[in-house]
Amino acid sequence: MASPSLHFVACNYPALGHTRPQLGLVTRLIQNHSDLLVTLFVYSPYVPSTRRELEALLPDLSRVRLIGVGPFSDNSGRGFESLFPAYVALQELIPMSYKEIVAGGSLTCTATGKVFDYASVPIPTIVLSDLATPFAGQGIKAITPDVKLLVSWMGTTSFFIHRFGPDELGGYGSLEEKATAALVKDGRDEKSLMEVAFKFESDFKGTSLVNAEDLAMFDYEIFPQDVDNASYTPVYINAAKQTNDWADGVAICSTGNFEPKARQVLQEWYEGKHGKKAFFVGPYTAPQVLSKALDFNGDASKLLPFLDSHPKQSIWLISFGTLFYPSRHPHQIETVLRTLLKTGTPFIMSLASSMYTPLPDDILREAKDRGLGLFADFLPQAAVLAHPSTGVFVSHAGVNSMNLAEVRSQLLADLAKGGDADAEVQKLINFGTPV
Predict the structure, then answer these.
(1) Other Cβ atoms closer than 10 A to 115
(2) pTM across the whole model
(3) Scanning 43, 149, 271, 340, which has the fewest C-beta atoms within 10 Å of its C-beta?
(4) Residue 58: how many CA atoms within 13 Å on its side-chain side?
(5) Which residues contact 299 (CB under 8 A, 6 or more apart)?
(6) Residue 91: other Cβ atoms inside 10 A
(7) Residue-wise pLDDT tens digits, 63-111
(8) Which has more confidence, 214 or 112?
(9) How far apart are CA 167 and CA 306, in angstroms?
């Protein structure tokens, strides 16, 4: 390959809902710019799955450098608990690796051992920093102040405004400042900052939710389930610093047509008043042919026969993404599964987010013995939804899942977990999607 003249770097967080929008953008950039090289930083245990996804999207990966950072283990757990070490490690390791790129040195992928030489590679001109790796973005900006730093936002435009916008737009962009002022006023220790910040977030009055799309919602619908929402407050506060201070703009996996009101608000606030750029890169579309989709636990041989052996729209797909699961109330999912088994209803379930709340052995055993249920850590969700035998989709209402649901005809059963999920559901209802 000839020496590239453009270099694009992306910092990736190991949740597939974060990964996939980035990969869709990377694919289009590679296809449209023959002189572009992409360096993609990935937490080491997630290199294999990320590579398989890329291989399904691009026939030639010679211009994509997949750099695993952090210790590699092919037995890494799933769920938020296992990803917290990644959140900490990526903040430090990515800037260190980036500094080596700028110096024209070499990097070794800790997952594969492959060495990449950067002696003849230009200094990056654009860096895409994941919402969940804000200090990585700050570190990169400190090394190369002139690099254009974009926030990778895997949610909707309206929720971006809700999280990082000013008070008058219903936003929490000044949440840290409010919490700090409250601590000073009450003479409390700074260690209580996140606790106070979360109280601001969850102080619901039962009034209409101020939102850029004018969706008919109450304020308490932002936290529709009993999950550990407070644990995400530090991530959002640090992400607000990256979004509003360090970054030059944002890449949002949405479109202006999907959220026309929010797009106008974003342009007036983030571009007009803040002087930053907003790029609508659109939702990610995963391969919908099973032979081209992600491996089904390394063996796709069971999946297609299972789908093909059942009538049209008879199978339930149950998938809650990488992180979110009703861990405080696992009986909710257990009740659904026992009901499906009692009624003889076939189902396919992803176990990725339930690793720290394992399903009861009797459910797993009965599903296997009767041939009614199929389980895997991760599933080629788009391909399963595209199959005519899939009739119901039980989801956590993540943005990627909802984008898929928008173009499919299945009945949608959502256990919205918080964040932008409930707004996503409301938007689909407005579109006439059967929910």
Answers:
(1) 9
(2) 0.85
(3) 271
(4) 20
(5) none
(6) 19
(7) 999 999 887 555 444 455 556 677 777 888 999 999 999 999 999 999 9
(8) 112
(9) 51
Note the Cα 147 to chain centre separation in Å: 24
For residue 408, which amino acid is it?
R
Q: Is 216 exposed, middle or buried (0-12, 13-18, 19+ CB in 10 A)?
A: exposed
Q: Who's near 18: CB < 8 A, 6+ residues apart? A: 12, 130, 131, 132, 152, 154
**Contact between 326 and 225 (Cβ < 8 Å):** yes
Which amino acid, one-letter code, is at 376?
Answer: A
- Residue 130's SS3 state is strand
Six-digit token string for 416: 């919205």
- pLDDT at position 199: 85
Tokens encoding 253: 């996996």
State the DSSP string of 258-304: TSHHHHHHHIIIIIIIT--EEEE--------SGGGS--STT-TTTHH
Q: Kind of pairing, strands 6-11 and 36-43? A: parallel
For residues 166, 170, 176 and 181, what is the CA-based torsion angle, rounded to 10 degrees? 90
Collapsing DSSP to helix, strand or coil, 154 comes out as: coil
CB 23, CB 54: distance < 8 Å: yes
- Burial class, 230, CB count within 10 angstroms (exposed 0-12 / middle 13-18 / buried 19+): middle
